[in-house]
Specification:
The protein has 210 residues and is an all-alpha fold. 74% of the residues lie in helices and 0% in strands. This is TetR family transcriptional regulator.
Length: 210
């Protein structure tokens, strides 16, 4: 029993550290995610961090996994609570914008930072970052396929193209919100996705107004 409690405390500590690592990487990038910076942020020693990760790359890889868990909980899960179909596709974009607007990550988006930093740097970190993007696009496509099967999107809708466009609008919103402002940027991103979905909807009235 005591061993189980120690294991649970250790897991909670690890998750707390990884949440901090994801937040820092959203600002400084994964390359800027150093043990020294993380220890300073947490008010702990670097030696305590080395007990969990033997080198920087393993910390980076675990940070990606933690960011994916966070994304699943804060973006994908809320969308899945919406009825399947075109409303669920739009709910996914809304959940993403809400996650950004809530300021959970000080840098805006962990994955956008990681993608731009490691897109031309082959290795384990790039591979895991690319897999995260591949899986995210596949998830959007699955919701689009579902909406087509339910007859709420026209049969000539291209799931791959629509997934790309929805993701691209989300990424653009991150950048513009930092430079132009959150309110106007997220409103424009919302209207853009709504307009795209309405153009492909069999019944545009299914979607909310602007």
């Amino acid at each position: 029993m005591q061993t189980d409690r120690r294991r649970e405390r250790g897991q909670r500590t690890r998750e707390t550290v990884l949440d901090a690592a994801v937040a820092l990487a959203s600002v400084h990038g994964l390359e800027g995610l150093t043990f020294g910076r993380l220890a300073e942020h947490l008010g702990t020693s670097k030696s305590g961090l080395f007990a969990h990760w033997r080198d920087k790359e393993h910390l980076q890889l675990d940070a990606i996994d933690q960011a994916r868990r966070q994304w699943t909980d804060r973006v994908m899960a809320p969308a899945l609570r919406t009825p399947p179909g075109i409303r669920r596709v739009f709910a996914l974009h809304e959940a993403r914008m809400a996650f950004y607007a809530d300021g959970v990550l000080p840098g805006g988006c962990f994955f956008l930072a990681a993608q731009t930093e490691f897109d031309d740097r082959p290795g384990a970190v790039q591979a895991k970052t690319a897999q995260a993007l591949h899986d995210w696009l596949a998830f959007i496509r699955s919701l689009v396929d579902e909406a087509i099967a339910l007859g709420e999107l026209t049969e000539d809708a291209d799931p791959d193209q629509l997934a790309y466009e929805i993701d691209a609008l989300g990424e653009s919103a991150v950048i513009h919100s930092r430079l132009v402002g959150h309110e106007v940027t997220f409103a424009r991103a919302r209207r853009a996705v709504l307009a795209r979905l309405r153009a492909l909807a069999t019944d545009p009235a299914t979607l909310p107004e602007d």
